[in-house]
Amino acid sequence: MPQDRLLVITSYPVKGKIHGVGTVGIASYTKNTLLNILKAAKTAGVSLQITVLAEKLSPEQSREYTEDGIKVRRIWQRGSIGSFLEIYREVLKEEADRILLEFEVFMFGNPLNLFFFPMLLLLIKIKSKKIYFVPHQIIADINDLSGHINLQKNSLGVKFLNVLIDLFFRISIQLTFQTIVFEESLKKKFRGNLLKKIKVIPHGVERVTPVLTAGEARKQLGIKDEFVVLYFGFLAWYKGADWLVENIKDQNIKLIIAGGANPNHLDKPYYHKYLKSIEEAAEASNGKITVTGFVEEKNIELYFRAADLVILPYRTFMSSSGPMSIAFSFGKPVILSDALLPYKATPDFAMCMEEVNLSDEEIFFSLSDDSLNKILSGIKSHGLGKLADFSLLMKEKRSFNRIGEDYFRFIFDDEKTF
Questions:
Q1: GO terms for molecular function, please (predicted)?
Q2: Where are the domains of the chain?
Q3: Which of 6, 132, 264, 293 is the most interior residue, by most CB within 10 Å?
């Protein structure tokens, strides 16, 4: 049986879990992807050895172990500039000539540390290693994140950061062998020769086996006959949690904000002010709005099974939504802000909408008018049928099983075509 090796640089969940606290958002995605790459390799009759270079977690966590056929080595420290040197040392020791690099802006702690990231890529490239770069966010304009980072739109600071970010992504893509993004519209943020180095592989959807019924989940949460709308994930300005609590008007709707503070921003006073505004809105809602705080992995099903509808009121589109993929896992209907209309540029998304005869007006709402409440009124009158059918189709189209096969073929097929 032929043997291949793959070295992976990423944030990675604690042993025995897929989702969890202490890592960044890419951790669960990466673990799901690697498990399905292994499955695809086995189906292809290839012996594949995967080694993960991950961040150090709490002292009681093992620094080196094998789980589900994947070797995990926790060798770098978030927030430490020395992490890049540690990673490079390990790359030199490993025999793998293919490296999968899953990247998130806060993965290495303070974004200022990213100054050293292109240097790491250059040193690895010099050693003739093929890096497959997977940026989980593509930031094209800091103005779209002004409220998230507390900068005034079109200020000198924003203009300067836009130049740096553009350079960062362009240099990173040039220094790596291939880049993978999750949606067609994210690829289109680049121009020229860079496009030849970018492949679209959509964000995967987990296959879950529900333990709870919707009725059991609602009973545990004390929910009776209310129509339940769910926002899931960290509380963030760009995700629109504050907009949602201010603009959902139907008193017969129960809104659950299933998420808590993002640990990357807890040192920022403006972020605490943001959190307080959401908490105060919930307290003034007479029980119609609930903020749960961080949701542990064992309770993710509880909230998704209890919900009638999942909502993504995002202010900007810079990545494929993890919460949306989880919603697809449970077959839950989803509605999205019109900032996420670029999803339609990816063929599978548009095809699934067309297959169930779902119009833009039935799934997308504007943040600048009352279209959210119009959609909700329409749903309560006509039901969730088409939205539910759309989610089930997307669940199959984007199953991690298929995504793992796509990654395996792309990384280990040297005759690549786009």
A1: glycosyltransferase activity
A2: 3-204+399-412, 214-397
A3: 6
